Amino acid sequence: MRLEAITWQRLTGALADRLTATAPADGGTRLRVALDGPPAAHPEELAEALAEALRLRGRPVLTVAAGGFLRPASLRFEYGKRDPDAYVDLWHDTGALWREVFGPLDPGGDGRVLPDLWDPVTDRATRSARVALADGGVLLLHGPLLLGHWFPFDLTVHLSLTPAALDRRTDPAERWTLPAFARYEAEVGPVEAADVVVRVDRPGHPAWNGARD
User: Fold this and answer.
1) C-alpha dihedral sign at 150, 99, 26, 191
2) Domain residue spans of the chain
3) Distance between CA 186 and CA 188 in Å, rounded?
4) At 62, phi and psi to the nearest 5?
5) What backbone torsions phi and psi does residue 20 show, to the nearest 5 degrees?
6) Residue 4: beta bridge partners?
7) Topology of domain 4-203, CATH
8) Three-class SS of residue 196?
9) Which tens digits make up the pLDDT trace of 86-143?
10) Going by C-beta distance under 8 Å and a sequence separation of 6 or more, which residues neighbour residue 153?
11) Which of 15, 80, 94, 204 could serve as a FRET partner for 50 with CA atoms 20 to 30 Å apart?
């Protein structure tokens, strides 16, 4: 894949412009965007910057962290606290994301999204209030392992790290997740699957594929 250097400011501007000109694929009134990447790539930072760029263009935005939709510890840690396959298969409550995040944004939905469901620190439900995303709004869902679930995204952005960079930038306490991301690459192929690929081996110097259509 050919990548070209770009600044974060230009990147977020280009993504915001593209989304402003994009209509929801399902005929609804709200866009759904994936900002996919391992914790070492910090997809939450791109979500924050893109949200600001969209707001400056007059678009309502709601950012949701996939980490707010983890399953209870009894399910996540069924095979131990550091099982890479469980991290891929069991940690995120994809059913809850379908029901509480994507469902309200379907055509005819009321747009009232649950921003999070489970607090992994207390291992209890967050009991957060629903947040309304107005017509014309954009959902930015950020976190790891988002592709390959058939979520109805209108745009997918993958923050990519080479294996060496992922190894280098992953927190030592989280290095047990490296086989999980290797499996994700092999089974889902996020670089090939995503609409937009951003290489972030050097955090201050991203490169992208130009947002292929």
Assistant:
1) negative
2) 4-203
3) 6
4) -130, 120
5) -60, -30
6) 208
7) Rossmann fold (3.40.50)
8) strand
9) 999 999 999 999 999 999 999 999 999 999 999 999 999 999 999 999 999 999 999 9
10) 32, 33, 34, 141
11) 94
